[in-house]
Amino acid sequence: MSWITPLPQLAFGAGLAVLITGVAQAQMGESIERSTFGQLPDGRDVDLYRITNANGIEMRVTNYGGIIVSLRTLDAQGEFDDIVLGFDSLDGYLSDAYRKSNPYFGALIGRYGNRIAGGQFSLNGETYELATNNGPNHLHGGDKGFNRVLWQAKPFDNHEGAGLVLSYVSADGEEGYPGRLDVQVTYTLTDANELAIDYRATTSEATPVNLTQHTYFNLEGEGSGSILDHRLMINADAFTPVDETLIPTGEIRPVAGTPFDFREPTAIGARIDRGNRQLEFGQGYDHNFVLRRDSAAGDDPALAARVWEPDSGRVLEVATTESGLQFYSGNFLAGTLVGKSGESYKHRSGFALETQHFPDSPNQANFPSTILEPGETYRSRTVYTFSTRSREETGQ
Ligand code: BGC
């Protein structure tokens, strides 16, 4: 269903519906405005929302795939840069070249983030067949995952911040999954320089659900080159090793003494090319980390990772209610896609920190369950916080 909110119904007070020249752009309040991003091949219009906070952080999100198209934050010198990979036009996300390399820039991922072995799982005595769209495996929800559907978007501006509620109804049987899944994802940009992402879903039948967000960051600015000098801390004592097709073996392996030990801040590139079977399989980091949960956090998001980029001084902190974090170091970026800055996105020029349950959980008895039952509500929250620290402040 294509959706356009009649502007007078939006609860943003007076002075709405100001038409800005040229493009169909409407002022929707101090901190959020909508414009047209393009049209899908079937003729449906796609919107772009520009959300800003009191400190000038600006995020642009489209209702196609819930994609975060851009995110401008301050560096330690007070300059803004766009720190996420992506394209300025819808066509960038629809092009053949993009679909062939399928990096899922900035998109919402569902029904199942990461891989399901052999595109198959059994549930309540039935075997379900899914698309094998990544070698022998199913990846990120299949041929037409949530990254490629049009979401309904509802902007809001409240005491917490400004943002968008994105809704999508995944029909019973869509991409081979059982049950009708009603999904809601809320992006909130706060004045405390946080981007909060709240996921909710309900289902009509038991089904696996593992939602995530696939933004690639480069804290020096998208298009500025390698991310290998970013210093990464991951709050995890263990990770889940994979086989050569990137399916977890089922083992939960301590990170101690391996290149997967990021408990102390370490440059992403420091050990990435070390002879290590796991790094060979991923062509770098492409692994799920088993997050350590600070018990004081209760049900609230707990610190999962922190990244500091020394030249810009930008810091990204990730907190989540999830048990896993997929750290992907952009190994499959191959310089074939040209992004917003006009630069091609080369090998390891962006990284993703995807908060989620563990890959292939529907086939792994010892992993926390990802099955959502009718009558239950799937809830998950991840908060990305943006700040800066200069080299002097960190003593490096
Ligand atoms: C996966 C990678 C994959 C990338 C883009 C990540 O979540 O772990 O293996 O290449 O998404 O599809």
UniProtKB/TrEMBL annotation:
UniProt EC number: 5.1.3.3
| Gene3D superfamilies referenced in this protein's UniProt entry, alphabetically | 2.70.98.10
Q: How does it assemble?
A: Monomer.
Annotated active site: 214 (proton donor), 354 (proton acceptor)
Q: What is its main location?
A: cytoplasm
| CDD domains given in the database record | galactose_mutarotase_like (cd09019)
Q: Where are the transmembrane segments?
A: none
> What name does this protein carry?
Aldose 1-epimerase
Return the similarity comment: Belongs to the aldose epimerase family.
Q: Which reactions does this protein catalyse?
A: alpha-D-glucose = beta-D-glucose
Detail which positions bind beta-D-galactose: 114-115, 214-216, 286
Keyword Iron-sulfur listed? The answer is no
State the superkingdom.
Bacteria
The pathway this protein participates in, as annotated, is: Carbohydrate metabolism; hexose metabolism
GO-annotated molecular function: aldose 1-epimerase activity; carbohydrate binding
The upper taxonomy is: Bacteria, Pseudomonadati, Pseudomonadota, Gammaproteobacteria, Oceanospirillales
**Subcellular location field:** Cytoplasm
Q: GO terms for biological process?
A: galactose catabolic process via UDP-galactose, Leloir pathway; glucose metabolic process
Q: Which UniProt keywords apply?
A: Carbohydrate metabolism, Cytoplasm, Isomerase, Phosphoprotein
